[in-house]
Amino acid sequence: MNRRNLLGAVTASAGISLLPGHATAAGSDLAARVRPYLDRALAAGSPSVVCGVIRGAHRHVAGASQAGRAPDGRTVFQLGSIGKTLTATALARAVSRGRVSLDTPLALPPGFPVPRKGPRRITLADLATHTSGLPSLPPNLLAEADPYDPYAHYTLDDLAAGLAETSLITEPGSTYHYANLGFGLLAQALAFDDVDAMLWRDVAAPLRLRDTTTTLRPDMASRKVTGHLAGDAVPDWHDHVLTGAGTSVYSTADDMLRFLGAQLRPDRSPLSDAIELTQRPRFTVDQTLRLGLGWHLSTLPDGRTMTWHNGGTGGFSTCAAFDRRSGTAVVMLVNTYSEESTDSPRPVDELTFGLLEAL
């Protein structure tokens, strides 16, 4: 396996067996609409795929595979950067409780220097909207990295050393620059060295996302699919420091539909205030893209807003998108890494957005 190709994943985002997955309150029309998108995901090179959709009162999950049993709503995938929306929800919950404000400057324990550029300090809102000016990754992360598990070696001591070497690319609050480092620091600012427990306690548990976690329980391991890159099986990613970026989060289509259902109807969620806050536009990139806390808000040609985030690790690619006005949401999880290019989006993103529009 090409080491360069593997490390390129660190900064992200026929003969077919097609079987229905776990479904709830869905008619044959919804199943028929989803099926071609599963076929297309397999044709694009995914060993297996699972897709969950919400349309009004109906929910449906279905999976497909090139060989063997198809995944269903309880099959475990690595989530990748969709996990940033969990961290953003934890931030919004801390704001709604009065623990912090969005304008609170980033503060870390002694020994973890916060980079500066210009007169204004990095705020928590800057981190959650990718406008902190931080680079995508700490400068010392990849030097000793295992290309198959690039975050696993990185410690808090490494982070402290890396921050001392980090220079901001732009002044805080001025420019959108996607940064895993920023979301990793956001989570550490909220719960230093206790990020995994915070994400479970403040987000996953209240929303009943039982299988959304950084720790594979034995029952989850038995339901997990193997990730792939360029046709080869690859290990999962593990991360103990920048977890807030979603680098080592696991989840399922069932959990993601619960999460998306809460996004569509925050008033029915125990985290209603926090969810509403995450979806509120905070930074305008251009005429078609704004940033909430964690979420990307794209303006569609007909004026509607599509709220979305995608993700990926070395062996998985994911995408989730929803439209509150129509009450529609789609999540797609595949067990292969795919890279976005300037010429074309990743297949999982294109299929997710296309299905949302079709529904």
Q: If helices are DSSP runs of H or I spanning 4 or more residues, what is the number of helices?
A: 11
Average pLDDT taken over every residue? 92
Strand content: 15-25%
Query: Which regions are unreliable across 5 or more consecutive residues at pLDDT < 50?
Result: 1-8, 14-26
Give the helix proportion (percent range).
25-40%
Task: Give me the Rg, rounded.
Answer: 19 Å
Q: What's the helix-strand series?
A: HEHEEEHHHHHHEEEHHEEEEEEH
Shape: globular
Strands, count: 13
Terminal CA distance? 39 Å
Helix-strand category: alpha+beta
Strand order of the largest sheet: 1-3-2-13-12-11-10-9-8
Main β-sheet, in a few words? 9 strands, antiparallel
How would you describe what is shown here?
The chain is built from eleven helices and 13 strands. The radius of gyration is 19 Å and the shape is globular. Strand 8 and strand 9 form a beta hairpin. By secondary structure, the chain is α+β, with helices and mostly antiparallel strands.
